[in-house]
Every structure is written in C-alpha cells, then in structure tokens.
Write a structure and sequence with these properties.
single chain, alpha/beta, 8-stranded mixed β-sheet, 4-stranded mixed β-sheet, globular
Length: 322
C-alpha cells in the first residue's frame, strides 16, 4: 500500500522547450528574438497548478541534454516537484517546438520530436507508475497525449488503475489532437473512452464530447458520457463558456470577457484552475467559475510563466460580475 500522499496532484505528461517570439503577434519570419518556455500541455498544467498553490508533482521524461536539464530546473523554480518522478533519458534528445500567435488569436505550432531519437516519454514503462508513485498525490492526472501510442498508453492507464486502487481521485483531460495520432478514429475513440472509464473527473470540449459519445447534439452527448459513471464532467465551448455536470445537475459557466494578449495555454490553465478549486472543496459552479477565471487571467497576460495567475488573483476576479 502507498503511504499517505505528500502531494496534492501527481500529473503525467510530456515536457518540451517552446520558443516563441518576444513580440506578441510576430510570426517566425518577422523576428530573431525568442523567449524559451517550458511547455507541453501537461507541463503547462503542472506549472499553472503550482502557481495556484497546489502541491504538484510531475512524472515526465526529458532528454539527457542541456535542454532537459534546463527544463527540470525551470520546473523546480516554479515549485513543481520532480524528485523521484521525472528523469533525463540517456540517448534521447529533448523535444522542441516553435509557436507564434497573431493579434486575432490565431496560433501556429511547429513540433520537433522524432521517434527513437527525440521521444523520451516513449521510454516510460508501466512499472514506473506503480502505487508508490501515483499514490504520492491525492489526485492522479493524465491526458490524451499519454495515450496516443503504445507502450505509453498502457503505462498511463495502468497508472490510473493503480491510483484508483490506492483510493486516489483520477482526472483525465481529453485534449484531442487528431494530427498526433497514427491510428484510425475508431481506435482513438476506443482509447479515449477507456481512459474516461478510469477517471472520476473528465474535461473536454464540445467537439470532443460529440466525437466520443457518437451523438451530434450536446445534450445527448452529455447524457451518453454521464452514463460512464463520472463524478464530474466539464465541457468547454470557447467563447460561449463551459458547462459542468455533476450528480445529475448541470451548471452553466459564462465566459469572462478580457482583452486577449497571449492565447496559448488557456485550456491548460482552465484545467489547473478546475483541479485547484476541486481540491479546495468548492461546489461544481464555483469550480467552473474558478477554472474560467484562471484561463481568463492567463490569456490577458504576456507569455512568460511568471504571468500565470495565483489563487488569490483567481478568487479576487471571481468576486467581480461576469
């Protein structure tokens, strides 16, 4: 049996170095100055969660190179625990991406990671996600990027099984990226539904809800997904806000209107705000409001991670009318 948790969350996912222009709105042909950021959806989530005051551990793998050492160092600076959870893999390089955003909110990403040479997460084995590891947190959190292919898919899901066996809560973020899958959509849906079946709380958007339920209407999709036995389901819908479903009730969360400065990582910050509010013991409507406000604060600020919101800032924004 695992010992009592010494962390709030153990998150699983990849980590990479993101290069983005220092001048927001510049594409890659219009600048020669970049900011290096620790990135990847799970990394963004872990850092945002730590900024919100949640004790966060991060299971990840990086290359045994300078970029990998830089990433692990930066995670530590932001308060993310990696000791005994993260590792640098010999013979692997750390993935890199380039990202830019125009002033209308459009985003472009270019990923540089190559199977066998620049894919350290692909080396993670199921035995590394045993009860003693996932049981360190009150919550085990995983997402779509960890189930795209084997053997990481089985490792990720085994981690969820071990967490549930240890009495921990399991969160899953669908976060579907079609271009990152080499398998047919039928396999994608089956894998996603298997992951959802291992979770207590799931986050997804409207298109993902329709795909995974096989229903064209959102209400019908929600009913079908709720039948999977979830404690809570959050469905986001961009500028139209979000809806939470819990114990047979639905809660509409209107969006917070803000000026968009850097619209990268909004979903990851929503995810972090959601988990932080859940762990704080809030009710569904409060959880949704805190998650939406965390995302609003993120997109209204500059790219660097020091601009991610704190819990006090989220609560303060929540006191103002939407």
């Amino acid at each position: 049996m695992p010992r009592a948790p010494n962390l709030d969350v153990v998150a699983l996912g990849s980590c990479l170095v993101e290069m983005t222009p220092t001048q927001t709105g510049s594409d890659l042909t219009a600048t020669d100055r970049y900011i290096a950021l620790p990135s990847g959806a799970a990394s963004n989530f872990a850092i945002a969660l730590a900024r919100l005051g949640v004790r966060t551990g991060f299971v990840t793998r990086v290359g045994a190179d300078e970029l990998g050492r830089w990433l692990l160092g930066r995670l530590g600076e932001f308060g993310v625990v990696t000791e005994g959870l993260a590792a640098a893999v010999e013979g692997q390089l750390t993935p890199v991406s380039f990202c830019w955003m125009d002033r209308a909110g459009g985003k472009q990403f270019y990923f540089y990671r190559f199977e066998g040479h620049c894919d350290p997460m692909g080396t993670l084995a199921a035995c590394e996600l045993g009860p003693e590891t996932v049981g360190r947190g009150r919550v085990y959190d995983f997402s779509e990027a960890t189930i795209r292919k084997q053997p990481l898919r089985e490792a990720s899901m085994q981690g969820a099984r071990n967490a549930r066996a240890a009495g921990r809560k399991v969160f899953y973020a669908v976060n579907y990226r079609p271009g990152s899958w080499a398998e047919p959509v039928e396999t994608v849906v089956a894998a996603q539904r298997e992951a959802i079946g291992l979770a207590d709380v799931v986050l997804m958007n409207t298109e993902e809800a329709q795909l995974l339920s096989g229903c064209s209407g959102l209400v019908e999709a929600t009913v079908a997904l709720a039948d999977l036995g979830l404690e809570m389901l959050a469905i986001t819908d961009g500028e139209r806000g979000a809806t939470l479903y819990s114990a047979g009730e639905s809660f509409g969360i209107p969006p917070r209107k803000v000026e968009v400065v850097y619209d990268v990582g909004a979903g990851d910050t929503f995810h972090a705000g959601f988990v932080a509010a859940y762990l704080a013991g809030m009710g569904p409507e409060q959880i949704g409001r805190a998650a939406a406000d965390a995302a609003a604060l993120r997109i209204s600020r500059q790219a660097n991670m020091e601009c991610l919101p704190t819990w006090d800032e989220v609560l303060e924004l929540g006191e103002t009318p939407v």
